[in-house]
Structures are given as C-alpha cells and as structure tokens.
Model the fold of this input.
Amino acid sequence: MKQDNGKHDWSWWKSEVITKWHNSSCGFKMETAFEIAILNSEKDKPLTWFFKKKDRLSALHPDMSYTMINIKILIKFGGELENAIKCRCVEPSSTEDYINAMEGITTRTRIGKTWTKIPMESKMFPKISRDHRRPERTVLKCHKCGRTSNLANTCAKKTKKQ
Done:
C-alpha cells in the first residue's frame, strides 16, 4: 500500500486504515490486542508503548477525545504504576505530562518491575555431600604420664626438674 500511494502524513494513513480495515473483525482484533497489552517496564520502552496504544485507540475510536484516550491508556498501566502516575499528574493532564511521569517512575524506581526470585536453599544453605563427615575427636591424655584417665593438671606423677 505504501508503494502504491507514496509518502503521506499520519492523518492520511489513519483515514486510509479506517476505510480499508475498519470492519467488525479487525476492530475486535485491535481491541483485544489493546486490552491484553500491559506495560512491562523491563521489556517495553514507555514512550513507544504509550504511542502504540494511543495510535490503536485513535484508529479504533476516531471520535474519542485525547483526554479519554489518555485515561484509557492510564488504566492499562496496571496496579502500582497507575496509582503512582495518578498521584504525580493532575487528572485532565496532557500526553506529555503522563509520559514524563511514566518515564520518571519507571527509570528511577522499582514500581512496575518484577522481582527475580532466588531459592533460599541455594543462597543460604549450600548442599553438603554425604561423604563429608566431621573429623574424629582427639583423645585427651595426660602429658606427664600418657594415660587417658587424667590430665596434666591433676596428674599424681611428679614432674622432672631440670
């Protein structure tokens, strides 16, 4: 289609996409793709993710206002990230405000990121093989007489004077 029509701006392409593919099945596919996608800040870049969602919504609902599009996208952030962005921005905010808040939160905090779980056994308690046994206890014996019944401090044998 691009080879046939040449270079045009986004509004022209948007109208062409709406006229060519705006039927019920394509709309359903685009809507389910929008509903499934949630921002994963470890994999997705916030700016590109936001504009993909904005383009999808504007193609699905061309008569929707920008504030409604921003609110629908804000819901797709999910959980803590959505709440953090709502706290930073006043409700009727522009797209730039939402993007700046989203990038600031995802780059400076761990909000919206998953934790890698390390099993406790491998980290805290290394496995010891069964062949590894404690060394045998040494037998205590007297240094004066050599018997095991007593020690040098209680031995009855007299020490040799030099």
Summary: The chain has a mean pLDDT of 77. Residues 18 and 59 are 7 Å apart (CA to CA). The radius of gyration is 36 Å. Residues 46-60 form the longest helix (15 residues).
